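Protein Record: Sequence and Backbone Structure Tokens
======================================================
Tokens: labelled as protein backbone structure tokens, with as many entries as the chain has residues.
Question of interest: how does this chain fold, as expressed in backbone structure tokens?

___
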Amino acid sequence: MRRSKALRAIAVAAGLMIAATGCGATSGTGAKTENSAGSSSGPLTGLRIMVPNTAGGGYDTTARTAAKVMNDTKTATNTEVFNLAGAGGTVGLARLVNEKGNKDLTMLMGLGVVGASYTNKSEAKLTDTTPLARLIQEPGAIMVSKDSPYKTIDDLVTAWKADPKKISVGGGSSAGGPDHLLPMQLAQAVGIEPKNVNFVSFDGGGDLLPAILGNKLGFAASGAGEYIQQIKTGQIRVLATSGAERLEGVDAPTLKESKIDLEFSNWRGIVAPPGVSEADQANIVAALTKMHGSEEWKKALKDHGWTDAFITGDEFKTFLTDQDKRVADVLSQLGLA
């Protein structure tokens, strides 16, 4: 009973995570307009974006898309994206926190890193970083291989309820991350005790993808955007999505359409090391703001099924502090932090 109450708290917290701030574009880091990390004028130069998990996942896709748009629109030049995977993103987080004052280093992150910082007992926390911008949010998707026996979400739920422990559930995040929270809340919504869920954690969507394609899992819970090519080619079948509305370009109902009372969304943003000057913060935020306003970025949002959730500066800092506290409270109730 105590665990069920705690998981109900997760659902409330997850909803509040997205509702805690608006999605308007603001800049709370100052009024400076320079957008170069390496000079006082011209495009941002020398920027590196660290992805704290494997290539091919949601963080990786978001970082590389942002870097490409920034370069294509001359907002930045020679932006480098690199991966430093491990421990649900906390290896990368520790690297970032240790690079105090490094104005050229940033990290793409999201809800999964917030949870992993507690479940992996990381000494580094996101509250130690310099928040720059929240970029996107996206609903989750319940996915299976094209070879799966489950053709609809009803097929899956019927089999899952009959023997919860037999059906493995894969996610590209550790405990406390979005790919973990979604199936736990789904289980509760359909009448399955979450403690009976056979959850298998992968270090990002890049590692999860082969397991889905190889039909090694009962199903996977993750964001559809990072698997959009496999979805379009029919290699992955989406049984349902977890947003309030259907996901454009994905032929699948929402959970609510399927008579399952659950909505859930994830988010992603970008942070810098501690100790970065206000002027350097303003330069990076200015570049990200210009990127956000471009037609190329709007097209990327549509192509990947992402929802615009752009906020910057103090507004993002407040959001991130609130996220950290809420996730810590929820995981403490579950005995995971």
Observations:
- Residues 1-36 have pLDDT under 50 and may be disordered.
- The longest strand covers residues 130-145.
- The CA atoms of residues 238 and 250 lie 8 Å apart.
